[in-house]
Design brief:
Blueprint: H1 2-15, E1 21-23, E2 29-33, H2 36-39, H3 52-59, H4 76-90, E3 94-98, H5 101-104, H6 115-130, E4 134-140, H7 146-150, H8 158-174, E5 180-185, H9 206-228, H10 230-233, E6 236-241, E7 245-249, H11 254-276, H12 283-296, H13 308-314, E8 320-324, E9 327-333, H14 344-348, E10 350-353, H15 371-383, E11 389-393, H16 405-423, E12 429-435, E13 454-456, E14 465-467, H17 469-480, E15 482-484
Parallel strand pairs: 2-3, 2-12, 3-4, 4-5, 5-6, 6-8, 7-9, 8-11, 11-12
Antiparallel strand pairs: 1-15, 9-10, 13-14
Helix pairs in contact: 4-6, 8-9, 15-16, 16-17
Bound molecules: 2-acetamido-2-deoxy-beta-D-glucopyranose (NAG) (4 copies).
Length: 486
Amino acid sequence: MTLTIAFIVLCAINNLESVTPQEFPDGFMFGVASSAYQVEGGWNVSDKGENIWDHLTHSHPDSIADQSTGDIACDSYHKYKEDVALLKDLGVHYYRFSLSWSRILPNGYANFINPDGIRYYNELIDELIKNQIKPMITLYHWDLPVTLQTLGGWTNPILADIFVDYANVAFSHFGDRVPYWITFNTDCRGYDGDIIPPAFNQSGIANYLCGHVTIQAHAKTYRLYQSKFKTSQKGEIGIVSMGVTWYDEQTNSNEDVEAAERVRQFELGYYTNPLMGNGDYPSVVKERVAYRSMHEGFPKSRLPEFTPEEKAYIKGAYDFIAINIYTANLVSDAPEADYKNVRYHNDVKAQFSLDPSWKNTSAPWLKVVPDSIRKILNWFKNQYNNPKIIISENGCADSEDFDDHNRVMFHQQYLSEVLKAINEDQVNVLAYTAWSLLDNFEWNDGYTQKFGLFHVNFSDPNRARTPKLSARMYKQIIANRKLHLL
Ligand SMILES: *[C@@H]1O[C@H](CO)[C@@H](O)[C@H](O)[C@H]1NC(C)=O
Ligand SMILES: *[C@@H]1O[C@H](CO)[C@@H](O)[C@H](O)[C@H]1NC(C)=O
Ligand SMILES: *[C@@H]1O[C@H](CO)[C@@H](O)[C@H](O)[C@H]1NC(C)=O
Ligand SMILES: *[C@@H]1O[C@H](CO)[C@@H](O)[C@H](O)[C@H]1NC(C)=O
């Protein structure tokens, strides 16, 4: 099999030999990503507390496509050395992974620090460093300790300070070896709908409270790092902007063009304008929520306000912006919805569709739209005066166990567009992160959707990992640092 794969890769490259390859700039970094709940397993070892994904998968198995859990997942809790060996073989410059909050602080609070949680991440970080791989650590990737959810989760303003306490523990124990921190893989959909935990289902209210507290938690964490750790640890801090989608107008009508930009401000600018813009939410978001709130009979806007002091510490609280990008949607304007229906979607006032010509993947939401990555990079460049950008996730769902040609093509096409954004549009892109290192627990899709460069045999108690064709392709791109544009 190894020979077959090598042969296919060589053929793919030879076919393109007529075109001049373009190089990635000096210092450009390649990485791969994972998140704690999706790969670690070890859900109940040595004092680890329960988080909201443990809770959901155990109490409502029907909300997961295959009724599975992350109890064992890829067993990276035990097999991290093997994971690092795969990373080493790929030649990646960094590994983006997340910390399990409830593994470090079992009840969410900083009064008890679990020694086994500290040991586990210290060993993972040390193993990475020993192999010349930089850790890029996400502090929060969706697995909130259940105790804190009971307090109302991210709708409760006290969570911002509780998060800062957790971040302080992480910086104190690990920060001496960590050059890149991502505070949040932001996502408040669990407060909007009834599927993703905590399934608050208070659209138009709870999701804005969640975002408001998340932004403040991020900003306070950034300020803490600057005052207490930056001088000695010299790391950089960013946040992932919500969403995985680029929004394009359906037609060139003024209504659709405006609707598409409105959606971008609601979905992308919502988190980044406070930090990278004027310290506040985008004006179209403020106007729309205030307008509908008034007609719905609310005494004031459902969108919370930042005080002047909050704006001052939020504005500028970032070193880089991180972007997860997979696909695109087409947007058209929607009629004003009935004021009886209080919903985020009605604030946005847009309809979404997919272009039937976009290539399918195994995930219904994920269509192959390579230029979406170039467009989103340019949008951030133009909105916020050319900030430093790390592409923190990009990847393809594909059901082939080993010969994942669709994924190979996906990464080559998207990376081509990244190169165009860098070389032709002068976007300040520092790094590209493939999602994901391993096939893993894909949230509500369980193990039914696979994104790994490495296959994981989930029927095997050893969770054997095997490189797919895409792992070999990625390794080659990292080694050559160039690509024939597609
Ligand atoms: C941990 O969970 C597993 C199921 O995943 C169970 O078999 C085991 O007994 C649990 N261990 C402890 C210490 O609770
Ligand atoms: C969530 O809210 C919507 C709209 O109010 C409602 O139709 C739906 O039944 C709710 N879901 C649950 C699980 O309560
Ligand atoms: C994607 O799948 C749908 C449904 O199976 C099919 O109708 C459509 O033609 C496919 N699109 C492409 C571009 O192949
Ligand atoms: C996965 O592991 C099981 C149990 O060890 C084995 O029977 C099966 O052949 C493996 N599948 C693959 C694709 O390697």
